[in-house]
Amino acid sequence: MNFLIDDAPALVVILPLIVSAIIAFIPSSRWPWIISMITLIGHLFISFELLSMVKKTGVILYEFGNWQPPWGIAFKIDGVNIGLQIIFSIFVLITTFYSRKIFLSEIHPDDTGKTYSLWLLAIGSLNGIILTNDIFNLFVFLEISALSSISLIALGAGMNRRALLAAFNYLIIGAIGATFYVIGVGFAYSMTGTLNMSDLVVQLSQYSSGQLAIFAGMSFMLIGLMVKSAVFPLHLWLPAAYSYAPSAVSTLFAALATKAILYFFVRLIYEVFRIYDHYLVIFLDYVLMPLSVTAIFVGTVIAIYQEDIKKLLAFSSIAQIGYITLAFSLNEQSGITAGFIHIFNHALIKGGLFMAIGYFAIVSQDRVTLSSISGYGQKYPITSFALLICGVSLIGIPLTNGFVSKLYLFQALYFNQMFITIALVAISSALAVIYFWKIIERLWFSTTTVKVAPEDPAIYIPLWIIAISIIVFGIFSAPIIELATMASSDLFGAISN
Amino acid sequence: MQEKISTSPIFNIVSRILFAPIIIFGLYVQFHGDYGPGGGFQAGVIIAAAFILYSMIFGLKNGETLVPVKINRYLMCVGVLLYAGVGLVSLFLNGKYLDYNVLSSDPSGGQHLGIILVELGVGITVATVMIALYHSFASFGDSND
After folding, report:
1. Among A311, A318, A383, A456, fewest CB within 10 Å belongs to which?
2. Full-model pTM
3. What span, in angstroms and rounded, lies between the C-alpha atoms of A255 and A88?
């Protein structure tokens, strides 16, 4: 089995993609799920194998077809992406376990095979985004993930026809984002003649004084990725797409899709374009940071006024993406660490919230609004209590992983002497209490009395795995902090060499 | 909906004459891809054009008997799996993923074999997806009438 270990970087992406082609036409409504689960368990093992390899050797380069990197396509796995890879792999397994009941109730049973085919396609391509070291290969994975996401979002049309409009909007806006990115790649390629990121760093140094075409390309690439990762004000596709998709799909995308692209965004900024320090400072200080702070406020305030809970969570996601980009805009190692910690923690938190709301959506067979969930705290205590833990963590109460995120963000901001921003972030956290309190109030403090209804273990087991890990990582936060520190020190270590 | 089938003898005969040469040209582009311009994507589109022409002239129903929907769908996956399978075979032969050198005793022969198989996979998938796209768009109005 030696080849399996040597080729782990390729297999981890190829496995879901191949299985997705096989299960597309399995007529049963159960087998596609079983095969996906087996595939993703294998995927998780390979990811841990990669982790141990990275801890041993530091960097793994995998050349496809044995073509040497500047010419061929290479995957690069190092401290920066291995943490995201592990979280990704664990989370897709939990979400797939959870997805069975949701898909059974929200889509036609005949479509199960095709749905899981798209599901694995999305997982494989998002994993490709995490691992690739080639800027054009990234574009290919972006497109695969966008097309499979759009189809998955459109599957929500069985519940609500607006899913089709949401999917179409995402198609158009996502295509514009991808086009911006590929125009930027074109500029970079015409100036340097290379697409490999490590080689790009070397080739760009000949233009160290700066050249307009490089800056144009860089701006196109960064803005394209900002559209894809829904950084305010380029987020307009996100709320509808997340809220009308089938709940399992919202869970997967809210937790991981934008995060994978944000990871690449930060890697591009700090690894490839590092030599244009004066330009980067302008971009980070005058574009990304103000936008992040605005995103935090706009997202939170709009969330307060939402009646539909999935929309509320989607707008809250925009605010949380704002926290991540705020941390990344600090241009300093503690900021990057805080950003990565929040990427990991927010994946758990928002995933858990969407899981709980998804269950309410299938029991009520309707949109989950603030008025429709009154009394659910008594009716579905197991799910509601997990929802409470995730929500408390979203606000950042101590003993949850959300607190760890906020703590590191405050430390990073304090370290950079940004006291006004600290105040703004603190105020926005207080505002988050308002929208979450509205949910809690409806769940437990409404006047209606209802009997306890039986709950579905297929839903609350994955949900509670998430809820417990939120508490565990809030108290023993060492593993997550270690992975995030590894990411930030590798990103900055690569620069000093 | 009563489908419009062209009754003009000119269309019928010209499309009958053109059908085979289009496919042969498609196959030429397919298998000449590793020596000259061409390859799986272009060849797939050309071959699909022949079947789409047939459906346009003789009607969607006859087109679907020529290329049954179910077989067409399986072939889409077969193309992808052929591509991925070549990569897996090279893994089992102790190469990297999609390393064609190990496919044959002679590296240059291995490259030829690998690229032909991979392009064949691309060709099959592109042709079947094009046909499926045409058929699904052409049958779009049916449910409304």
Report:
1. A456
2. 0.90
3. 9
